[in-house]
Write a structure and sequence with these properties.
Order of helices and strands: EHEHEHEEHEHEEHHEHHHHE
CATH topology: Spore Coat Polysaccharide Biosynthesis Protein SpsA, Chain A
CATH architecture: Alpha-Beta Complex
Shape: globular
Strand content: 15-25%
Structural class: alpha/beta
Largest sheet: 10 strands, mixed
Number of domains: 1
CATH class: Alpha Beta
CATH superfamily: Spore Coat Polysaccharide Biosynthesis Protein SpsA, Chain A
Distance between the termini: 41 Å
Oligomer: single chain
């Protein structure tokens, strides 16, 4: 569990240099085998959660097939699908050029789907991406290299637009997009970032479409909060909450711009409107989840509220200074409105997912070998 301890004298402990009394709960849980910087590349499980987007998913898998990395598998989690199209397509494509497993769940929600993937068993490193991206050939190599540092518990990467053709796509980039720049950055309580909102402005760390964790650590903290994430009433925040927990747990989070993916932005304005509101709601849900799971974070969070508001409202802030004169002000206000609804959405999401868990462990179907004709594996049939 993530905790935050306040030093008895009100001063940061000298060995950690934590910002404003925040201290890690324990030293990172690091296997002895990671003590050697030069070693075999870590085994990686790539998790792709999907729902009713079979053509886009197949493009993502095609880009993964071109990855220059010696040891990885892919696990597709079909989140409450309305048809069997995805499973049929994966079976038709077997054998795949990498080990591929498929599992379906009847419970919607991105965070829940990611937790199902953890239950299915993963390799040393688990990397998450979306079903609407194309990964760079060296994406996994950059992630594996970053994890050669035994203090690193999470790696995020650069997310570029796959295309910039419509006003909606340009406006998403103007509002900050998914990129966090081209400079490698390391975040930890031992070396706090200069931003006054650190470590709660977790959006600066990266995005859930391009993130990787040590599987042992992620399982040890119970995975992602299922009451957050796309597909839940909270609409998002699962990635931000996980990033925060990594840092507060004493590990380092590395933003590695060499780990590149290209994301297909929404082309239409209506989709961007929904996205802006959802991002704000997800941010509010993430902050609520952080305090819900660890009330001691409320004090440090309140102390950062003023600079956080400046970041949200100031025209010259990192978030707003890229907006051109034609940027629709409606998008800005929709995001702020979503932020206000975030705590209520998180409470509704907690109610929806009460008592829900991925146990017993889901059974994944392997598609790295040709599949027999007839009924689908696992006793299911096409709908």
């Amino acid at each position: 569990m993530v905790t935050a301890h306040l030093a008895e004298d009100g001063e940061p402990a000298p060995d950690r240099l934590p910002p404003e009394g925040l201290r890690p709960t324990r030293a990172p849980d690091l296997p002895a085998c990671l003590s050697q910087r030069h070693r075999e590349p870590p085994r990686i499980t790539v998790v792709v959660a999907t729902r009713d987007r079979t053509p886009s998913l197949l493009q993502t898998l095609s880009s993964l097939a071109a990855c220059d990395y010696p040891d990885f598998e892919v696990l597709v989690v079909d989140s409450a699908p309305s048809t069997a199209d995805t499973q049929l397509a994966l079976r038709a494509g077997a054998p795949w050029p990498f080990p591929l497993r498929y599992v379906a769940t009847s419970t919607p929600g991105l965070a829940f789907a990611h937790n199902v993937a953890l239950e299915c068993g993963t390799e040393e490193i688990v990397a998450f991406t979306d079903d609407d991206v194309e990964v760079d050939r060296y994406w996994l190599a950059a992630i594996g290299e970053a994890f050669a540092d035994p203090e690193v518990g999470c790696v995020t990467g650069l997310i570029l637009p796959a295309e910039l053709e419509t006003p909606a796509q340009f406006w998403l980039e103007q509002s900050g997009g998914f990129s966090r720049g081209y400079e490698r950055r390391r975040f930890s309580l031992r070396q706090p970032a200069p931003e006054p909102t650190f470590p709660f402005a977790a959006g600066r760390f990266g995005s859930g479409a391009n993130m990787a964790f040590r599987a042992r650590w992620l399982r040890g903290v119970g995975g992602f909060d299922p009451a957050t994430g796309a597909g839940s009433p909270a609409s998002g925040g699962d990635d931000l909450h996980a990033f925060l927990r990594v840092v507060l747990d004493g590990a380092a989070l590395v933003y590695e711009p060499a780990a590149i993916i290209r994301h297909s932005h929404r082309r239409e304005y209506d989709g961007l409107r929904r996205q802006a509101f959802g991002y704000g709601r997800g941010l509010g849900a993430y902050l609520t989840a952080a305090v819900w799971t660890q009330p001691a974070l409320l004090g440090p969070m309140v102390r950062r509220s003023v600079p956080a508001m400046r970041h949200l409202l100031a025209a010259d802030s990192v978030k707003n200074r890229g907006k051109e004169p034609d940027f629709p002000s409606e998008l800005t206000w929709l995001e702020r409105a979503g932020l206000i609804t975030g705590p209520f959405a998180y409470a509704a999401s907690r109610w929806r997912y009460r008592g829900v868990g991925p146990h017993p462990p889901a059974q994944a179907v392997s598609y790295d070998a040709p599949q027999p004709a007839g009924a689908l594996p696992g006793g299911t049939s096409p709908r």
